[in-house]
Amino acid sequence: MEYSKELLNLGELVYELLSEALGVDSDYLKDMDCAKSQFIVGQYYPPCPQPDLAIGINKHTDSSFITILLQDNIGGLQVLYDSQYWVDVSPIPGALVINIGDLLQKKREEKNRAEEAMESIDSSSQAKAFDETQIGVKGLVDSGIKEIPEMFRATQATLASFKSPPPPKHLTIPTIDLKGGSVVEKIRGAAERWGLFQVVNHGIPVEVLDRMIQGMRSFHEQEPEAKKRFYSRDHTRDVIYYSNFDLYNSESASWRDTLGCYTAPEPPLLEDLPSVCGEVILEYSKEIMNLGELLFERLSEALGLDSHHLKDMGCAKSQYVAGQYYPPCPQPDLTIGLNKHTDISFITILLQDNIGGLQVLYDGQYWVDVTPVPGALVINIGDFLQLISNDKFKSAEHRVIANGSSEPRTSVVSVFSTFMRASSRVYGPIKNLVSKENPAKYRDFTLTEFSTIFGSKKIDTPKLHHFRI
Ligand SMILES: [Fe+2]
Fold it and tell me: Domain Fe2OG dioxygenase spans what residues (predicted)?
């Protein structure tokens, strides 16, 4: 009687401390009657003649909010740490052992779930309101905001990843001269190690590149009314303008707007494109188709295949062009330009201006800047090529930091894929690249299957594992 009365007092104190540790009012758990009931058990473990063949109590968790244990000096209690190590709870004279029971874990989970629900209600209604304005991030900046809205605040995990150690100085993105020597070997090395490289001497006049950047920039810098005509979330439409592909799926929005259009195999009609950039989009995407064909030839050879192999598989057939606009951000340390992801493409050709901000993950540990090289284009391997090459080539994980400069950043992404449009074409690891020693790592898939997954997840969710055998 005496001991249990003392324990009730101690229990009240522990619940107060646990409430504070949960970040709630100190009476929170007591008010939920967690401290009200108590059941005392006296355990007696007689000496065992064959202790290696029996146990004192099998592993378990307690069906309590908390349990307070008083033990003598014999020892024997162990607790599982991190699901892997059984650690002795060595007796400390005069100490009591407190352990969290199932009911308290449940309360904590309920609280977390409620908080998450509140946050998602809050951010999804903010996202909806933002979406309905159709003004994009550029519109927010033009409104003169000094602080980014809550929905753009990146998660702690994302922000922490931006503080990871810088890469060693010798790690720089390969730049390959397409008219130079050993092109196939260089592409093979870059595609295997980086999944991303820059190309120069690619045959597209710099003047066309400049006009393309300028055209996309002009689109985004028009009056909102001129852009709203294209605003949509139907990603199968020929031409759309939107902000944040995964606005309703992601935990936080990115500081970026996009104009996207399908340019191959059927280019859009000039009159269906925005007048400020329509002509240059058609001209540029034609040039990119030619460069894409050349790159797929070299990539085929780099895989040890006939130079037409990837083209014959239809890898160079479809193209989707996206003009990304990253307005200057008033709080670039709190948000991102584009969350980390791999591309839904065979390859992607990226044209960027001189602002910078693109980074690629090297060796799963270092985020390396893809520093703009005047006149160069960035090539990155997408998920489809990683899959059909049976992991020989690596789909590059990349991201864009929020634009902290006073100038906007503009880039043009040409994705070799049917993107979000249906395609029943089946792909799988190329037969010539699999063998008994190197069996297929992926099952066959249709592009539609991939794009359905892509469209339903936040952008930083890995997709390839869905197809892994
Ligand atoms: Fe990308």
Answer: 36-203, 317-422
Distance in Å, CA 386 to ligand 1 centroid: 15
C-alpha 50 to ligand 1 mean position (Å): 63
Q: How far is the CA of 339 from the centre of ligand 1 (A)?
A: 9
Is residue 118 scored above 70 in pLDDT?
A: no
Task: Determine how many CB atoms are found less than 10 A away from the CB of residue 10.
Answer: 14
Length of the chain, please? 469
Tokens read off for 382: 């997408």
Give 446: exposed, middle or buried? Use CB within 10 Å, 0-12, 13-18, 19+. middle
CA of 269 to the centre of ligand 1 (A): 26
pLDDT digits (tens, 9 = 90+) for 434-452: 999 999 999 999 999 998 9
Distance, CA 408 to ligand 1 centroid (Å)? 18
The mean per-residue pLDDT over the stretch 151-180 comes to: 92
Span from the CA of 16 to the centroid of ligand 1 (angstroms): 49
∠ CA(297), CA(301), CA(302), 5° rounding?
Answer: 115
Average confidence score pLDDT of the chain = 92
How far is residue 35 from each of residues 31, 64, 307, measured CA to CA in Å? 9, 10, 74
Encoded tokens for 377: 């284009």
Predicted pLDDT of residue 107: 65
DSSP characters over 319-336: EEEEEEEE---S-TTSSE
Task: Give me the residue spans of the domains in the chain.
Answer: 2-100, 150-467
Tell how far the Cα of 119 is from the centroid of ligand 1, in angstroms. 27
Contact 361, 398 (CB under 8 A): yes
pLDDT in tens, 100-109: 888 777 766 6
pLDDT at residue 62 greater than cutoff 90: no
| H or E element at residue 414 | strand 409-415
Q: How far is the CA of 345 from the centre of ligand 1 (A)?
A: 9
Highest mean pLDDT (candidates 54-68, 76-90, 405-419):
405-419
Q: Are 152 and 130 in contact (CB under 8 A)?
A: no
pLDDT band at 126 (very low <50, low <70, confident <90, very high): confident
Q: Is pTM beyond 0.85 here? A: no
Percentage with pLDDT > 90 across the chain: 71
Give yes or no for residue 116 having a pLDDT over 80.
Answer: no
Going from the Cα of 174 to the center of ligand 1, the distance in angstroms, rounded, reads 18
Pair type for strands 175-177 and 196-200: parallel
Domain 150-467 has CATH 2.60.120.330: yes
Alpha-helix residue ranges (DSSP H) falling in 221-277: 224-228
